[in-house]
Amino acid sequence: MASSALRLYNSLTRQVEPFVPQTPGEVRMYVCGVTVYDDCHLGHARSQMVFDTLHRYFRETGDRVRYVRNITDIDDKIIRKAREAGVPIGTITARYIDSFHRDMERLGILSPMAEPRATEFLGGMIALIERLLARGAAYQAGGDVYFRVRKFAGYGELSHQILEDLRSGARVEPGEAKEDPLDFVLWKGAKEGEPSYPSPFGAGRPGWHIECSAMSLHYLGPTLDLHGGGMDLLFPHHENERAQSEAATGVTFVRTWMHNGFVTTRETKMSKSLGNTRQIRSFFEESPYPEEVTREWLRYFFLSTHYRSPVDFTDQALSAAKLALDGLYQCRSLLEEQFGAFPGEGEADREFAPAFLEAFSADLDTPVALSVLHAAKSRINPWLAGGGAGTPPVDPRAIRSLFDLAGRTMGLLQVPSSRWVGGLRESGAPTGAGLSGEEIARLVDLRESARKNRDFREADAIRDRLKESGVVLEDQPGGPPRIRRI
RNA sequence: GGCGGCGUAGCCAAGCGGUAAGGCAGAGGUCUGCAAAACCUUUAUUCGGCGGUUCGAUCCCGCCCGCCGCCUCCA
């Protein structure tokens, strides 16, 4: 059970309001996935991570989550890319679907219940368009089918746009036969050399927005508890989805609309058209750390800013995130050394967990949740630093319980601390500078002998040498030094 | 032009009517052969500026300055 009821910011009402699913104990959640024509960048990473965190929170608090995330595998950009490469679109989409899945694995994103692809749901989309035509909410013109925006009274409510303002800025492409510039396409008539599919309105392919309406209807019914995506999907994508879904079903499409803020570089939105994106793949490949470490590093970084605020992707902030996480691992490592294991698996925690979950309840305030982790660390560390004498100031089992909770909800602290802090000893893996575990062990032994002989010059020289290779030695009283990589 | 967001210590970042969380960095100290790690102490009388409402405002209102986003594909 949650320590307190979840409250979420709803883009529709522009207010933080209690989140109450229509069926108690069950959450119907739909998040916009990606269009598979390129590798995903850090903007996609943040969005997926935000909703993954929410997904995990629902699971933690005992809700069944029916989570659907779509894949757009038919679209102008895919077609263009396939044409340029001289291959069928399936070649392009297969490649980038694999890439997307690999990225989700890198980021530690839990799988959704379903991941439908647009091309698998043509039938559902066509049925929905037929319903809209039958109700007069759509019309055929010039081989296309358009949604009649002025027939939907609530148009503009979600993005808080005034119809006339939108109309003045709207464009009509040459060849389009819209009744109104704001009308958007539901079905595009086939064009020479483009993939097309048969339909009652002629061969063609679906417009962008209709897939989400059709697929969410199929999996989750006419009313979703929650629909999420990046801020940039608010208009026109979500506005259009809402219009066509509600025009077809006559009921509320989405109870809570959530939109996450952008990832920026130099305070400018990261976007493909600006050419300032950083791919998830390249971030991982260029990371000095193993994938499991890089994963949590990135998660901590993104989760340390509230999901609705922009995050500027800077080396400084990234570095601070790594060091903060290191501190948490250090604490866990000390606990394990003290007890021979991380004590108290599964113990209930009345000390920290309620505060941690309360932060989640307050519109997913992950920065505050992270601060609870540090508060716990600061409570136990003095005792650990004193060698664990006397009664601990806080039950170590509560720390374990909290850290496990952070693992389940945020995907943090999942790496064995011995490996995070001094992994070289276990893995024998080479360091960034190419020293193998064996070489390190040999140098450490050499230094220990030098120290025994009080040849501190030699000992320090070896220590410096190791440090240049990214290996820091921490001497401990009466034992071998701790080996920590930086 | 229309709509919206942001501006909190050197940096990152919560709080959003009751008197400034947390992280990183910095300073001093304990420990150490020296370090490192850890620990202790310390670092914003103040929340872009000016007015207003209030017993009380970083939080509400108005104006101004600066930055950003959406309005076209975009997480």
What does this structure look like?
The protein is an alpha/beta fold. The protein folds into three domains: 7-260, HUPs (Rossmann fold, 3-Layer(aba) Sandwich), CATH 3.40.50.620; 265-415, Isoleucyl-tRNA Synthetase, Domain 1; 419-485, no CATH class. The chain has helices at residues 42-60, 76-85, 89-107, 122-134, 163-169, 210-220, 234-249, 280-286, 291-303, 315-339, 353-361, 366-385, 396-410, 417-427, 437-452, 456-468; strands spanning 7-10, 15-18, 26-35, 64-72, 138-141, 144-147, 184-189, 204-206, 224-230, 254-260, 263-265, 268-269, 311-312, 471-476, 479-485. The longest helix has 25 residues, at 315-339. The protein is elongated and about 90 Å long. The two termini are 39 Å apart. The relative contact order is 0.11. The chain binds one RNA strand of 75 nucleotides through strand 3, helix 1, helix 5, strand 9 and helix 7.
What key phrases describe this protein's structure?
486 residues; alpha/beta; Rossmann fold; Isoleucyl-tRNA Synthetase, Domain 1; 3 domains; four-stranded parallel beta sheet; four-stranded antiparallel beta sheet; 16 helices; 16% strand; elongated; RNA-binding
Largest sheet: 4 strands, parallel
Low-confidence segments, ≥5 residues, pLDDT <50?
423-432
Give the end-to-end Cα distance, rounded to a whole number of Å: 39 Å
Side-by-side strand order of the widest sheet: 4-3-9-10
Instruction: State which percent range the strand residues make up.
Output: 15-25%
> So, CATH architecture of the largest domain?
3-Layer(aba) Sandwich
- Please identify which CATH superfamily of the largest domain we are dealing with: HUPs
Q: Describe the oligomeric state of these chains in a short phrase.
A: single chain
Overall radius of gyration: 27 Å
How many DSSP H or I helices? 16
Shape, principal axes of CA atoms = elongated
> Which CATH first-tier class of the largest domain would you pick?
Alpha Beta
Strand segment tally = 15
Number of domains: 3
Overall residue-averaged pLDDT value: 90
Helical content stands at 40-55%
